[in-house]
What we know:
Layout: H1 2-16, H2 46-64, H3 68-88, H4 90-104, H5 112-140, H6 146-174, H7 180-183, H8 189-216, H9 220-235, H10 245-257, H11 261-298, H12 302-330, H13 336-358
Amino acid sequence: MWCKVSLFLAALSIAATPTFAQTAEDQPPRPPRATKIPDAGFWPTKVMIERFLDRIVDEMATVYEFDDEQVELTRAVFQERIPAWLSENRAEIQTLMNEFFEAQLDDEPPDVEQVAIWAQRVYPLIDEFEGVITETTDEMRDFLTEDQIAALEASMAAFHTGASLAKNKIRVWADGGFDPENEWIPPGREREERERAERERMRAEMEAARQEALAERGDPIAAQRLAESDAHDGDEPAESQPADEWTRYTLAFIERYRLNREQRQKAMQYLSVARESRDDYLRARGDELERVTQMLEAAADEPSRRAALEAYEKLNAPIERRFQQLKDRLDTLPTREQRRQAAQRQAQQNEAEPASAASQPATEPDGRP
């Protein structure tokens, strides 16, 4: 059920792709919100919203084995909170959805600035809606059993993962990271296939988060699945899962600042989004990069080499820009205290290295003692 809600949260980022709440400093700027409800465009009626929420509650009743009283209490909580939030934000939501569908129906991609402004307006809505759902489920704890709460917490872990994936994509665009040349796909089969692949990737990551949460709560089946997954990953030969420069940088960053679990999760999500964007670019420009690389290797004189190198650097610049964006996003994660401790550890290491070198026996120029 939460997968459906999270997929709804991510729908804007997935479909507009041409394909844990963050700190205020990490959020994109917020342009003014629309205050006037558009004269045209789709908006569900009150009855539609009520029936949609009723279906969600019915699914929850089956999954969590609610009794009749719990069903009615859950229904009341949902009907009290969610329609009110939708109504309060209708002008902004409907305006953004109109812009979204208009862009979807155009054969030409929107420009980077348009997408950035749109994303800056979408991001706080996703963030706020995630908060509404969290508050709603927190209220449900008052009438759920311990087992139901454990199952709900696991589902919420999946929900937050889905919301984070959506926000990460939107955050990149809000920073001007939309790449129309490689991210925009005109309407058709290729777009549908990419959207389907994105949904499947999200489902997989959400399910992994749910299983991890269940395992932490002591669920033996989930713990066994997690152990089997870890064992399987460890059995794969190193050649099948090379750690590229971006992954090595991210893992080293996590280790340097000793990030906590939530920070590590965000770091790996930032890496996932960055690598996806990079790989999309490489798929689109791979042939050109290979051709220019061959030109560089075959250059027989300095002018030819300079021309090939210039062409290579031009093609490689978007990749370097994406890598820098990843670094910038990772830099938002450590706290001031984590930075202080990391600097202290580095200073201690620097002091220890000369002492260690001084304790080694002198060597001859050829390396022999």
